[in-house]
Amino acid sequence: MSLTVAAICVADLTYAYPGGITALDRLRFAVAKGESVGLVGPNGAGKTSLFLCLSGVLPVKAGAAQVAGLDPARPEDRRRLPATVGIVFQNSDDQLFNSTVFDDVAFGPLNLNLPADEVRLRVAEALDCVGMSGLEQRLPFHLSGGEKRRVALAGVLAMRPKILLLDEPSMHLDPRGRREFIRLVNGLEVTKVIASHDLELILETCKRAIVLDHGTIVADGPARSLFADQMLMETHGLEVPHSLSHHRDDQRHHI
Amino acid sequence: MTLSFETLPTSASSWNRIDPRWKLAGIIFATGAVIFLQTFSAAALALAGAWLLVIAGRLPIKQFMKRMGALAVFLFLFTVWLPFMTKDDGPSWAWGWVHMSFRGLELAAVFWCKGLAIVSLVLVALATTPLHSLLQAAQALRIPRVLVHVLLLTQRYVFYLVHEFSRMRTALRVRGFRNRATMHSYRTIGHVAGTLLVRSSEQAVRVGHAMRCRGFDGKLHSVVEFRTTVKDVELFLLIVVSATAVLVWDMAQR
User: Fold this and answer.
1) CATH match for A6-254 among 3.40.50.300, 1.10.3720.10, 3.30.428.10, 3.10.129.10
2) pLDDT values of chain A reduced to their tens digit, one per residue, 255 residues
3) Fewest CB within a 10 Å sphere: which of A87, A202, A240, B172?
4) Does residue B120 sit in helix, strand or coil?
C-alpha cells in the first residue's frame, strides 16, 4: 500500500523492552485511511506496545513507522502526533486524573493550545458524542467502569484525531454498555485500530484483522475468515468466536 | 477501617471569585508566618484568624469541624508527650516520678494551634477554588513544576490507593486473614504495603504514557483565565498585614 493512501504504514518495526526481551519483531503492515482493523492476540503478544510505538511513547527506529505521514522517531513529528493519533488505554483509570470530567476531557485540547471557547465547544461535543453530557462537574474517580470508558474516549475525541487506537475497549463494559460502545465506534469516521480479546466486538467493528503473537504478525486478512480458522485461533491462544462456531455447526448440520 | 477522602464541598462565597493567584499567595504567606510563631497567644490568634477566613469563605461547618476533629486527635498523639518530656527550670507540676513542665504544656498548645491553623488555611484555599485553578495559580506563582505535578497527581493517587487497598483488604479477608498482633499479620501488612507501592509505580508509568499521548508537555493549561481586580489585591494585603502583625506580636512577646 502506498504511503499516500495509508494512514499507518509500518515497515520492520522492532521494539525490545529495557531488559532485552523483544516485544515487537520486524512488523510490517499498513492501514488505509478510514479503515477499521482489529488487532488480536494472546496476552503479551505486543498489542499495547505496538500502540505505544505508533503514538510515539516508546522509541522506534527512524522510518520504521509512518502515522498520518508523521514519523514517531522524529522529535518534531512526535510533538504533532497527539493532535493526530488518539489512544484509548486498556484501563480507563490510567487516562483519567483530573478533578472533574470537564477538566479531563479538556486536558488534551488545552495541550494543543486551543482558545478557551474552542476547548469548551470540543468538550461539549465529545461528551455529547459519548452520551455523557451533563456530567461535566462529576469526579471521574466516582464514575462506573462504563462511564469512565466513555469519558476516556471523549477525552480522545475532543482532540479530533485522524487515527484512533483503542486498547481493549470492551473491558469493564456490561452488555448494554458494550453494545452502545460498538454503535459509537462504528459511527466514528476515522481510521481505527482496535486491539481486543473480544473477537465478537472485532467482527462487529472491523472487516480486517491482524493476529499478533510473540511480537510478530502471524496472520493478516478478512476478520471473518481468520477467526473461523480454528487451527490458527487455537495455535495462538485464541478461540473461534461463538457467532462463527455456531455458523460452522449449522453448516455441518446441513451437510 | 473506614477511609474517607471526599473533597470538601466547594463553598458558594465571594471568595470563589477571588483571583486564585492572589488567594494562594496570601495563604502561602500566612502559612509561612504561622510556621514561625513560638508563643501560645500568637498561635491562638493565628488559629482564630484562620477560622475567620473559614467563616468568610462559607465553608460547610459540619464537614470542616469533622476534619478539624480528626486532625486534633492526630496532633494530640504527637503533643501529649511534650509536657512530660520538656526539661526546663520554669514552673512545673510533679506527682511522684511524673513531672509535667508548664513550658512543655505551652509548647504542645502552640504546636496544636499551629497545626490546626495551617490545615484550616489550606482547606480555605481548597474549598473556595477548583483544584485545577489552584494548581494553575501555583504554576503562575512560579512554584516548581515538579511540586505542582505532584500535587495534581496526589489527589488522583489518594483515590487510587484507597481503592486498591480496599480491594486487597477484601481479598485478604475472604482468604481468612484477620488483623492481629502477630508476626504473620505484620508480614502480611508489609507485603500489602509493598504491593501497593509497586502497583502505584506501574500505574504512574501508564498515567505518564496517557498524559504524553494527549500532548502533555509539563505545563498545565485551563479554560479559566485569571483576572486581577482591586478586591483581589485588597484581600491579599489584608492577609499579609494581619499575618505580619501576628508575627511581630509573637516576636515582641518572646
Assistant:
1) 3.40.50.300
2) 444 468 999 999 999 988 888 899 999 999 999 999 999 999 989 999 999 999 888 989 888 999 999 999 998 998 889 889 999 988 888 888 787 899 889 988 988 889 989 999 999 999 998 888 999 988 887 888 888 888 999 999 999 999 999 999 888 788 888 888 899 889 888 999 999 999 999 999 999 999 999 999 999 999 999 999 999 999 999 989 988 876 555 555 554
3) B172
4) helix
Statement to judge: residues B92 and B193 lie in one domain: no
Containing structural domain, residue B174: 144-223
Our CA-based measurement puts residue B216 at a distance from the nearest CA of chain A, in whole angstroms, of 6
* Residues 6+ away with beta carbon under 8 Å from A121: none
Of B156, B207, B221, the CB nearest to A110: B221
CA atoms within 13 A on the CB side of B11: 24
| Predicted local distance difference test score (pLDDT) of residue A3 | 45
- Cβ(A43)–Cβ(A90) under 8 Å? no
The answer on B167 and B74 residing in a single domain is no
Closest residue, chain B, to A56 (C-alpha) = B213
Q: CA separation (Å) from B169 to B1, B3, B191, B192?
A: 10, 12, 12, 9
Alpha-carbon Rg of chain B, whole angstroms?
Answer: 22
Does residue B137 sit within a domain? no
Q: Which three cell numbers stand for residue A195?
A: 486491539
The domains of chain A are located at 6-254
CB–CB of B221 and A111 under 8 A?
yes
Q: Do B22 and B104 sit in the same domain of this protein?
A: yes
Give me the interface pTM, i.e. the ipTM.
0.73
Mutation pick from A111, A112, A120, A159 vs chain B, by most beta carbons of B within 10 Å, is: A111
